[in-house]
């Protein structure tokens, strides 16, 4: 089989497979089996990507992104890992792992005089666990992490489904009351329902990078992004632009009143030691 061939040649299995192969049951079950082992051995890693505040030019927030390189199957990128983890339920374990790591890291930075908010990605399945609020509060307590240093990103798909699930909305409100912030990720790509803007306790949204890429040369997209930023301002929400790769994009976003930028132009996702050099002592948080 393809799988045996790639493994025999010592190549990266996951990268060598086509999209159809990824969707096949046998690939999924191999990934699932290896993921379970990796989770038990805490063999996942976290990279952090900084966001720069456009009013102060300081880094006040970093996003935590999961990384997994398995000794047998190689690197499994998040775009393959997360959907499989969501289907198998292992996303809850990935979520706890990321939460714990993020809180520990936030405390370490705060103790070093550079309090930085860490933003973690979540799936709705994690919030279907009735103990989610308790779990989060316990991890904050155990790690001594102040709640305002934690932010939770949800996707538009999450938001749309949450509208119909009162228990999820109430869990979000409980966490918000403790000082945890919620951010809407990949804004503009999903379901463009404004009802969840009205219903959910969201303090921020992140404009998806597919809108940021063409702003320099496409007037229509530029107008769209400017409109999104104004929309955010009138709702008193923080607006972050994702996938910012050039200086020209930064100036357009700055001009339009965007609050913060994240992307390769500033930094790729990196290990903590490699982004600390960008931090300046701050009292913002
Ligand atoms: P996301 O939350 O929208 O994260 C941003 C993604 O864009 C990251 O991909 C990041 O590496 C990439 N990126 C950042 N700046 C740039 C840029 O300037 N140009 C380009 N082309 N890409 C950029 P990554 O790390 O592969 O993650 C992909 C997605 O997987 C994330 O999208 C998020 O939805 C999901 N994800 C990652 N970690 C976790 C996790 O711990 N839990 C959950 N539930 N989802 C996660
Ligand atoms: Mg995100
Ligand atoms: Mg995003
Ligand atoms: Mg994304």
Your description of this structure?
By secondary structure, the protein is α/β, with parallel strands linked by helices. It is built from 15 helices and ten strands. The strands form two sheets. An eight-stranded mixed β-barrel has the order 1-2-5-6-7-8-9-10, surrounded by five helices. Strand 7 (181-187), helix 11 (195-199) and strand 8 form a beta-alpha-beta unit. The longest helix is centred in the middle third of the chain and has 21 residues, at 91-111. The radius of gyration is 19 Å and the shape is globular. The model has no long low-confidence stretch (mean pLDDT 92). One magnesium ion (MG) is lined by residues 63, 121, 153, 185.
> How are the strands of the largest sheet arranged?
1-2-5-6-7-8-9-10
Please describe the biggest sheet, giving its number of strands, its sense, and whether it closes into a barrel: 8 strands, mixed, barrel
Question: Compute the gyration radius: what is it?
Answer: 19 Å
Which ligands, by name, code or SMILES, are bound? Answer: ligand C2E, magnesium ion
> Order of helices and strands, N to C?
HHHHEEEEHHEHHEHHEHEHHEHEH
Indicate the overall shape.
globular
Q: Helicity level, as a percent range?
A: 40-55%
The span between the termini is 54 Å
Q: Indicate the proportion of strand residues.
A: 15-25%
SS field, number of helical segments: 15
Q: Which segments are poorly predicted (pLDDT under 50) over 5 or more consecutive residues?
A: none
Average per-residue pLDDT, rounded, comes to: 92
């Amino acid at each position: 089989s393809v799988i045996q061939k790639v493994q025999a040649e010592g190549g990266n299995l996951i990268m060598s497979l086509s999209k159809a192969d990824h969707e096949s049951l046998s690939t999924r079950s191999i990934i699932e089996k290896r993921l379970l082992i990796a989770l038990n051995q805490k063999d996942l890693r976290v990279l952090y990507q900084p966001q720069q505040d456009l009013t102060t030019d300081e880094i006040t927030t970093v996003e935590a992104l999961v990384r997994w390189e398995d000794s047998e199957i190689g690197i499994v990128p998040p775009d393959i890992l997360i959907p499989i983890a969501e289907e198998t339920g292992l996303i809850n374990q990935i979520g706890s792992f990321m939460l714990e790591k993020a809180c520990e890291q936030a405390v370490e930075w705060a103790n070093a005089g550079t309090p930085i908010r860490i933003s973690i990605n979540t799936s709705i399945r994690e919030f279907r666990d009735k103990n989610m609020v308790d779990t989060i509060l316990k991890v904050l307590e155990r790690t001594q992490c102040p709640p305002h240093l934690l932010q939770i990103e949800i996707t538009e798909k999450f938001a749309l489904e949450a509208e119909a699930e009162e228990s999820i909305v109430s869990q979000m409100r409980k966490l918000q009351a403790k000082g945890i912030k919620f951010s809407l990720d990949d804004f503009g790509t999903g379901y463009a329902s404004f009802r969840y803007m009205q219903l959910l306790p969201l303090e921020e949204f992140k404009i998806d990078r597919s809108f940021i890429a063409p702003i320099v040369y496409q007037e229509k997209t530029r107008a769209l992004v400017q409109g999104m930023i104004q929309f955010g301002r009138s709702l008193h929400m923080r607006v972050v632009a994702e996938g910012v790769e050039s200086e020209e994009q930064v100036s357009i976003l700055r001009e339009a009143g965007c609050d913060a930028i994240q992307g390769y132009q500033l930094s790729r996702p990196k290990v903590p030691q490699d982004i600390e050099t960008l931090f300046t002592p701050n009292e913002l948080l």
